[in-house]
Write a structure and sequence with these properties.
This is Carrier domain-containing protein. It is a single chain. The chain has a single domain (7-114), classed as ACP-like (Non-ribosomal Peptide Synthetase Peptidyl Carrier Protein, Chain A, Orthogonal Bundle), CATH 1.10.1200. Helices cover 50% and strands 0% of the residues. It has eight helices and no strands. It has helices at residues 16-20, 24-42, 64-78, 84-89, 93-103, 107-111, 118-122, 136-139. The longest helix has 19 residues, at 24-42. It is globular and about 35 Å long. The chain starts with 15 loop residues before the first helix and ends with a helix.
């Protein structure tokens, strides 16, 4: 269906680990296609139009609020740290995809989000009262 943004179309073409095994230019190409699909939904692009990989993201409707929302999507999909300024400082999808492809090579950043905590997915802070204190019979 044209213009569909069904969840299966918003998945990466390969898992992040498989993307890391690709050459950086191939990785950037795959990420670019993924970004265009994600941005089509995020920017509410009409079905008869497409997000351009070479046109300015700001000219296509990206603003700071949309960038904030997209960082979470990209972090979870790519399993890398994606600061919001990365989205705001790269002018085109192609530039952003190249920067994200390079981030997949950096193991210290990649390791940050290998397994997202359940609380991050639920948008909740961990309970501070859930920590067990010392056993009462040890205090005696």
């Amino acid at each position: 269906m044209a213009g569909s943004t069904a969840p299966d179309t918003l998945q990466l073409p390969l898992p992040p680990a498989a993307l890391r095994g690709k050459a950086v230019d191939e990785r950037a190409r795959l990420i670019s296609g993924y970004l265009c699909r994600v941005l089509t939904g995020a920017l509410d692009v009409p079905p008869a139009h497409r997000v351009s990989a070479e046109r300015s993201l700001r000219a296509q409707g990206l603003n700071s609020l949309t960038a904030l929302r997209l960082t979470r999507t990209l972090r979870l999909a790519l399993r890398v740290d994606v600061p919001v300024d990365l989205l705001l400082t790269h002018d085109t999808v192609t530039e952003l995809a190249t920067a994200l492809a390079a981030r997949l090579e950096e193991p210290t950043r990649t390791a940050l989000l290998e397994e997202p905590p359940r609380t991050a997915l639920l948008g909740k802070e961990p309970s501070r009262t859930a920590r067990p204190g010392p056993s009462p019979h040890l205090l005696g």
